[in-house]
């Protein structure tokens, strides 16, 4: 399922300022795969590429970039990529990994605080966050900040696991669709799409066997974190990133193989319009200025 902003029937005319373009999907060479940041398999990147609509340009902002793998795959193919995170350690780590890329800009800012647009000083064609908004404690201010840095005609894109504790570990969730719609409207977006997405049967079977089962076994073999991490900086992967470097070639080659097998079944995800009750659903939120 693709959603094309240029042909959406909701809202007014699309202000593109030129011919809309697709977000580039770059196929990494083996040398690039081995040089990429260590990551947990980026299934969220597949949602990004499958559902992001055509864009008015390729000036991008990612909030909560994690290990930087998504940024690594995008930065060569886009005009500009700005990365924003609230944690100093994460920003420093990303600077070390991506700082030599001339079109990558790294900024430290907490989107729960006012003034993000003034802090960054520019707006973007695509503003996106992958499984991060559930950790935003002030969701109204966070959504307003995302709207303020989305250019006129641009798109805001969020993947959002909408689960309450203990199944979820975030601090923000929406019970009813109307709550999320009100938040988007108050932030300044003029139209939006809210989708529930899930893996297709083939992709779900492959992902469960090749990713979920090995990951569960590994977590059982190591000591579990006493505190659920709320930022990437507090995760086990970040804390042990130096040690993981030794096994990075094996891990990244395995993820590349897994991605290849998953794509043999075509698009990974299926989607439908979100119902009134949003709890316990993997959401994709698209909003246009």
Question: What's the SSE blueprint?
Answer:
Layout: H1 30-35, H2 43-51, E1 59-63, H3 69-74, E2 80-85, H4 88-98, E3 104-108, H5 116-120, E4 124-130, H6 139-148, E5 150-162, H7 177-187, E6 191-199, H8 201-221, H9 236-239, H10 241-244, H11 248-263, E7 269-273, E8 281-288
Parallel strand pairs: 1-2, 1-4, 2-3, 4-5
Antiparallel strand pairs: 5-8, 6-7, 6-8
Helix pairs in contact: 6-7, 8-11
What do these coordinates show?
The protein is α/β, with parallel strands linked by helices and 289 residues long. It has a single domain, classed as Vaccinia Virus protein VP39 (Rossmann fold, 3-Layer(aba) Sandwich). It has eleven helices and eight strands. It has helices spanning 30-35, 43-51, 69-74, 88-98, 116-120, 139-148, 177-187, 201-221, 236-239, 241-244, 248-263, and strands at 59-63, 80-85, 104-108, 124-130, 150-162, 191-199, 269-273, 281-288. Helix 6 links the parallel strand 4 (124-130) and strand 5 (150-162).
